[in-house]
Amino acid sequence: MSTPLEHDYIGLTEKKKIPSSSSSSSSEDGKTFKETELRLGLPGSESPERKPLSGVSLSLFGNLNNNNNVMNHHVHVAGAKRGFSDAIDAKWAFSDAHGSDSDLGKPSALFSPRGAGNVVGKPPLDPKTISTQQGNSINTPASASQAIKESKPLQEKNPQLPATNEHASAPASKAQVVGWPPIRSFRKNTMASNLTKNNDEAEGKPGFGCLYVKVSMDGAPYLRKVDLKTYSNYKELSSALEKMFSCFTIGQCNSPGLPGKDGLSESSLRDLLHGSEYVLTYEDKDGDWMLVGDVPWEMFTDSCRRLRIMKGSEAIGLAPRAVEKSKSQN
Amino acid sequence: MNYFPDEVIEHIFEYVGSHRDRNALSLVCRSWYRIERCTREKVFIGNCYSITPERLIQRFPSLKSLTLKGKPHFADFSLVPHGWGGFVYPWIEALAKGKVGLEELRLKRMVVSDESLELLSRAFPNFKSLVLVSCEEFTTDGLAAIAANCKRLRELDLQENEVDDHKGQWLSCFPDSCTSLVSLNFACLKGEINTGVLERLVARSPNLKSLRLNRSVPLDALQRIVARAPQLVDLGVGSLVHDPAMETFAKLMTTMNKCKSITSLSGFLEVTPRCLTAMYPILPKLTSLNLSYAAGIPGSDLIKLIRHCKKLQRLWIMDSIGDKGLGVVANTCKELQELRVFPSDNIGQHAAVTEKGLVAISMGCPKLHSLLYFCHQMTNAALITVAKNCPNFIRFRLAILDATKPDPDTNQPLDEGFGAIVQSCRRLRRLSLSGQLTDKVFLYIGMYAEQLEMLSIAFAGESDKGMLYVLNGCKKLRKLEIRDCPFGNTALLTDVGKYETMRSLWMSSCEVTVGACKVLAMKMPRLNVEIFNENEPADCEPDDVQKVEKMYLYRTLAGKRKDAPEYVWTL
């Protein structure tokens, strides 16, 4: 056996800490605010001209704070969890300092196409800035689970086969670190399919475990159904609906929508479906058509019978301010 | 040396069960080695490539029970590409050829083909017990062969396997004459099963103690099945979703009331929270509860449930229980020994857990010795408190979801916290680290973790010193797995002899180069040093200075294996 190494205690305590990691925790707000934009493009695409989502447009749904995380569904954010990616950067930098041959040439080690059974989304654009959003995978479970949903069929057949390329079109275009958090892939797949099952089971019994209501959108060729029990606030509902109906509004992405700066305090789905003029309404137990967002969430789920995404021009009487807008454009 | 005839020694050895003790016996002297090997019935092989089946059979002619592990642990997290290895067929073939009287086979992370299951079912007339954990490649056809041909089958336990469900009637393949079942666990199967067949099987299995169903078994079938097996000790509920007929639900509650022996409860792969009340009659007696697959149960319902579980020793739960819920656990479950908290992936604002929950548990549950804790953050202060409150940890695994997150209160790395854990918990055998960590934590580990056998490191450390502290200090280290750390050639090559005292070493995305691995392989012929190169074409020789993506080395007496796929280079 070799002789034990002497421990250089003094040397250690003088060692400076990794600088970047310590700045990770408080940096998020400024950095990510800009990037918390709702996107309606095709999954995986990065439409550059996006209005920044000011927190205001969420006022439709009551007391929503500027919670960046939930809105991150479609966003390919480089460094939303700076700590993680910065630490990784720092580590690569460190290895340079140690004089090892600086072939950082395998940065794709983390994302090696054939090994990355769990990598979702596109490979990193810049090998050195490894965007990781594994933290967000907990905060934005909708898209994370959806991403896992996407990968599941592949994984069932060939659990270890790469999925990177196939995932170029995954809706959650965040890159995740392979194998972190360290959860067994069986468990990951099972939980993901739990969510799929919850969404697929059509005949739920209202008021017991699921609450399926029809959602119609003016101009769409068919209706959808959503389970209101899977959401706990208006924010989630709106993003889910937006995702669901995005395919019908793509054509209107570029329409001269309202510029971001003007007082977009109007409570209308229009603000979410950028450029389009829709209002989210629902039919309640009494048969009346109401504007979504007025009552507390629980009351809403109790009384909502069906949802309708209404064209602004028809929303007269429901959303007076929407009427103002359409009037001003006439 | 021997004052007793062999028969007496043999008789004494019968009382020695654990394979480690048996290994120790065999080293005492030649005659003990001889006696021990002839009487050993259970063998544990932690790495299926460390030895050939033929050699195993030669040494232990009385072999009846074999445990085999295949892929490295990080395969669980998709770090090992498909096709790496761990095939069980050659083992079964060799055992069959050697006419071994195999009765029990336990496999973990191995590739199990239907062919191997079929051979298994035919070659060993006394076969009693099959346990498959995290295995893959078999289908329900293989299970059908086991059911049909193993006349004395007592245990069929499938845990978290990837099984292709051909939706055949494998359960029907148990013949009417099969009445010996003691344990049946098919919770991981995804397909439908014929509940009528299952009911009849349960009805004719009076010794059935453990039954874990898959999600295709609905509430009414559950009621009928459990009604036929009031002697059950371990129940895995498949699906507990509202049944339109309220009488069924009432019936289920009555049935559960009659189950006086159930001490272990799991499953709930599909569950409506309200239906959980059917389980309340058995909660007070539970010692083991696994709700880690029960998605969608709100924290409040979990808390309500836990309040009834005063005897719990093992709890697996989702983080939707929240810090507050863990406080309830701490107040209620005073006998708690093992806790696992898994991250929930659910839509919605489920309360996650932080260091507060863990501190609460440590204050309320002094008997805690095994922990797996996924959380959003951890502080040094919390870890120090936990270390003080629970000095009995054997397994301590912390997974902070943001892998390099420092202490949010002080912005410091978590070196001191983990240092406190290893210093206080003298019996610690397994440790997984996360959070921001420098070389210091490894200094502490090397200094204090004398009993440490398995260490998992990710995104930690600053230099080779870190790894060297561990290799030098932890004398009992058996498995070391490292990913994404700045450990390089110096660390790898300083003490090459160490690796023969260990089962295996995994290093991925570190600073180790091909050249260093070659040097290591040359110096240590009894190690297999495998490099995975997934990006290069198979015939392209890697440059010595190139960094190695993934390296897995293990001690072996079997030499270079012949079943490695193209991307694996054994140096």
How much helicity do the residues of chain B have?
25-40%
Please mark out the parts of chain B with pLDDT under 50 across 5 or more consecutive residues, or reply none: none
According to DSSP, the number of beta strands of chain A is: 5
Helix content of chain A: 25-40%
| Overall pLDDT confidence of chain A | 54
Terminal Cα separation of chain B, in Å? 44 Å
> The CATH topology of the domain at 41-180 in chain B, please?
Leucine-rich repeat, LRR (right-handed beta-alpha superhelix)
Query: How far from one another are the termini of chain A?
Result: 87 Å
Oligomer state equals: heterodimer
State the order of secondary-structure elements of chain A, H for helix, E for strand. HHHHHHHEEHEEHEH
What pair of chains forms the biggest interface?
A-B, 81 and 95 residues
CATH architecture designation of the domain at 41-180 in chain B:
Alpha-Beta Horseshoe
Major sheet strand order of chain A: 2-1-5-3-4
> How would you sum up the global shape of chain A?
elongated
Instruction: Kindly state the number of beta strands of chain B.
Output: 23
Strand content of chain B: 15-25%
> Counting H and I runs of at least 4 residues, what is the number of helices of chain B?
19
